[in-house]
Specification:
Number of strands: 2
Number of domains: 2
Structural class: mainly alpha
Shape: extended
Largest sheet: 2 strands, antiparallel
Number of helices: 3
Strand order of the largest sheet: 1-2
Order of helices and strands: EEHHH
């Protein structure tokens, strides 16, 4: 096999131009999602949750720290499952973790309730 090029980038043998373009698509999609999440956090904290101005930075910091710890733990677990079971097992583990988090969120909402921005309890 010979190496091919994608613009100025030399690709390894066996990597086609389509493989490289798919990688770039996924990378730019991820960059867009991260940017969206970064810009939406202050909006949600300000408009929906109405967190006081003096503690917004602390709330965002704790939120991002908890998210980072969760990402590290899930990545570690998914890596172990990938190595020990099969490559698709990591997706199955993350799916089950998402189901558990969703079930906990629904249980908390049912127990605590939800107050709409207009003041009524739903």
């Amino acid at each position: 096999m010979t190496a091919s090029k994608l613009g100025p980038i030399w690709l390894q043998p066996g990597v086609t131009r389509r493989n490289a373009l798919t990688y770039f698509y996924a990378a730019f999609f991820t960059i867009g999602m991260v940017a969206f999440m970064s810009f939406m956090q202050p909006y949600v904290i300000n408009e929906n949750l109405q967190i006081p101005v003096d503690i917004r930075g602390a709330v965002l910091g704790v939120f991002n720290m908890c998210g980072s710890i969760g990402i590290l733990c899930v990545t570690l677990l998914a890596g172990y499952v990938f190595d020990a079971w099969k490559p698709g097992g990591a997706f199955i583990v993350v799916g089950f973790i998402n189901l558990i988090v969703c079930a906990i969120a629904f249980r908390v909402r049912r127990k605590v309730g939800y107050r709409s921005p207009h003041g009524e309890l739903v």
